[in-house]
Amino acid sequence: MTTSTSSNLLSLPHEVLTTFEEYQNSRHDFAEAIASHLTTTVPTQENEISDLDAIKLGRSKAFQLVMSGNAGDLLKALSMDPVPNVQIIGMLALAEMCKRDQPIAEKCLSIVRNVVYWIESDARSNEKHISPSEFRRVATHFLTTICRHNAHITKSAIDAGLLKAFVHMTQRYPPNEKAAGLWGIHSALQHSKELAADVLDFPKLLQCVLLSAKEPHPEVSSIAISVLGSFAKYDPQLAQKILDSGAVEIVAAIWKSIHRAVADGNATNTSVTIAVLYFLAQVIKHDENTLSIVVGQISFFPLLADLFVTEENIYIRQNALSALSVLAQYPKYSSNIISSEQSHDILPMLGACLQNPMTQWQGIRLVHSLLKQNTETIVKKCVENLDYTLTPIAEMLIPSARVNPTVRFAALNLMELVGNSVGKQWPLFEKVAELDILPSIVALQESKMVPSIDKEAFAAADSLIKVTKNVKYLVFLIDTPPLSEALFEQTLKQMSACLRSENGQQKAFIQEGYLRQIQTWLSEKTPQHSEAIMDRLKEIRNLFNSDLLPFHTPNYEEKLLTMIQ
Q: What is each CA distance from 72 to 109, 142, 215, in whole angstroms?
């Protein structure tokens, strides 16, 4: 406020000055109340939920209460307020709303240019009642939340100069401000490969990220390395650009320092270690070319196995497991993982990870990558260590188990792989039968809980049924949960094939009363059976000389066997 403005205000009547002062304070208090309301919980009546769920539910209710008014538009105006402390708290509250609501984020695109200008020009550097550093960080955080929702909003924000502000923050300021700028870049590249390519090509951006990765400050270094990994995750071309930039040399030096710390029994920096593991997993996952470039400078073992087996931090273990699962895609490294000196430690830890909801998905990915190699050594190792491989996965497929849908989908995909790979994996398939995995999968498919799960459960069940050689097991499958029409037909088709090729099973098929059941279904012409099902039933009946004797004859099975023999 200028001197002349202050003089003019002082000349106003006392009651006007009082009202003006109340207006100034109320704007600040309003924005502060909204920000506080959105970051704390509202008491809920629900009792049977976890603490985390209660927090999420409370914040959701808080947001609904705020949205029931016109708070978004009011906060947008306050984020442009000429009074610095009102502006900063208004922007902070508006950022919380942008996080949660896409329409509000879209409305805020109109003020992006102003915010970018304030960051670039240090517009609040001469203010006495506000820290310029705090203002820049809050403004950057606000821009970061706008990028949260989709590629369209992010692209519009970039066109308004968003990346200029983020690069500016990484070039000039102390660690906490650099970190804010890097988080902004990380947020801007997340939505698509095309957007990530545009962000990567922005002038000076990659150079600033690389310089930040070399920073001695762990927070700055870890975020910068994560940004490089996020660029590389999309496709081989972007990964190659990151490799050509010299990023591997930077990460290799940090990897060596982590190795020395572990060897000396010292603690490693958690955030940096996680970022390095994430970077390596994203860069090497595309093809052997990118892998060979990384392997030329980084030796994965034994450090990667050590971090997975001995590290107590769950996030380090989670990222080490991800890196192992990517390495296992390549034959040389899959055999290294399973036959190394540390395999006796890796497999028990894998079993523990498959039982931990935070690491289940990564654990299934590792088992999937290993079994996809389809080698006798790997299959034998998995069979020998069933408690650490298939047993926990079988528990995930029980319909009543509380399992993340993404994890369950991955488990079903693994079972489909087992069914499609029978040959060298036959011993593993026998264990699938012993663990009653197939009935669980069929029950999942019938439950129709999630469309994607239903589709993958069908694919997994179909692949396993096609390779089942035990007729009794197929009959058990028909008798357990109600099969879908398609799986019922597939089961009968496989049953017919088994009875044709395994003559020893025909006698048991008659003795156990299965043939009588087939003939009963045919005679009743049950309405729910389609013409295709009836044809399969006839196909099975015709394998036997069942016309010799009516199926309702007393002691039918014994007499029919005598007549056939």
A: 13, 13, 38
Token representation of residue 70: 């016109």
What end-to-end distance do the CA atoms of the chain give, in Å?
A: 109
- Dihedral angle computed from the Cα positions of residues 191, 193, 194 and 196, in that order, rounded to the nearest 10 degrees: 70
Q: What is the pLDDT along the chain (565 residues), one digit of tens a residue?
A: 444 455 555 565 656 656 656 666 667 776 677 666 666 544 444 444 445 454 454 455 555 555 555 666 666 766 677 777 777 777 887 888 888 788 888 888 888 888 888 888 775 555 555 677 888 888 888 889 988 888 998 999 998 889 999 999 998 778 988 999 999 999 999 999 999 999 999 999 999 999 999 999 999 999 999 999 999 999 999 999 999 999 999 999 999 999 998 888 888 899 999 999 999 999 999 988 889 889 888 888 888 888 888 888 999 999 999 999 999 888 888 877 776 565 557 888 888 999 999 999 999 999 888 888 877 777 778 878 888 888 899 899 888 888 888 999 999 998 888 887 755 556 777 777 778 888 888 888 877 777 778 888 888 888 888 878 878 788 877 776 667 888 888 888 888 888 887 656 788 787 777 887 787 777 765 556 778 888 888 888 888 766 666 667 777 777 777 776 6
| Model pTM above 0.85 | no
State how far the Cα of 214 lies from the Cα of 524, in Å rounded to an integer. 77
Give the CA distances from residue 371 to residues 102, 366, 390, 426, 496, in Å, rounded to whole numbers and listed in that order: 42, 9, 11, 12, 29
191 token code pair? 């939505």
Q: Is the CB of residue 368 less than 8 Å from the CB of residue 428?
A: no
**Structure tokens of 116?**
């970018």
- DSSP state letter for 108: G
HEC sequence for 263-284: HCCCCCCHHHHHHHHHHHHHHH
Verify cis geometry, omega within 30 degrees of 0, for the bond prior to 175. no
In this structure, what token pair is assigned to residue 423? Answer: 């040959």
Q: Identify the sign of the CA torsion 254, 256, 257, 258.
A: positive
Contact present, 90 and 81 (Cβ < 8 Å): yes
Question: What's the Cα-to-Cα distance from 510 to each of 252, 253, 332, 476, 506, rounded to whole Å?
Answer: 67, 70, 50, 15, 6
What is the token pair recorded at 341?
């000196």
Quick one: which of 459, 509, 468 has its CA closest to 486?
459
Which amino acid does the sequence have at 412? L
DSSP state of 480: S
Nearest one of 390, 312, 378, 386 to 340, comparing CA atoms: 378
